[in-house]
Input
Amino acid sequence: LRSAESGASAEGLENLARVYTRLAATKDTDRVLELLSQQYATLPNTYLTAAALLAARKEFDAALARLDDGLKAIPQDQGVPLQLAKVQILMRQGRQEQAWEALGELHRQLPKNQAVLEQYLEYALDHGKFQEAESLQKALEELAGASAVSTKFFDSRRRLLQSTGASDPQLADVQKTVEEICRQRPEYVEQLRLAEVAPVTGVGPIARTVQFVGLRGDHPHPEPVGEGSRRAAFGRGSDPEYAVAATTRSEPSTL
Output
């Protein structure tokens, strides 16, 4: 493996760091991460990968510090993924209010950034901040359009969260919306098993935002934030052990 480090691309070094992590070779992982920071200091994934692997070891403060280093080193217009990654780590640490404040500040700085807005909205829904969620949902509708998949998803999710039970008549409307999304994006039916979403009587099994939004590619950085709602992996890797957000409220965290 060491022979592969010489002259490796950024992606190659990231993959090597992940391999070393799987092998529990901490010193080798740290050495490769240092190579990344030396050779590819201006690439966002250099810091996202390092933060993910440090967070996987529950070295959250070190992960946050690495992201701060990245925000100083990379072009300012590429910093949103790192800012959102910081929010994810804060939530993993149980620092919910600080994460909420960080999202709010980021949204105020970048009110037209759809990735930030969606994560801010999801956090509001996850934590029962429905008044704030309604305002953010209106902002999303203005930004993305009423017919956008993400707009429809968040509207459905909010109504599910506020439903009174299985007999609530608005659940039928939610089902219609999900069916409409399926027609617009038929590839999601197989990928995300949307057919199983419509008849649910609770919030748990409903498709997550990363399913409707994160796979679309409509915006470049749809990393999720909400603890208990979406799974996000830093960098290019998609392995569960590098995720920072838990998948559902009832499922254990991956870190």
Observations:
- DSSP finds 13 helices and no strands in the chain.
- Residues 194 and 225 are 22 Å apart (CA to CA).
- The chain has a mean pLDDT of 74.
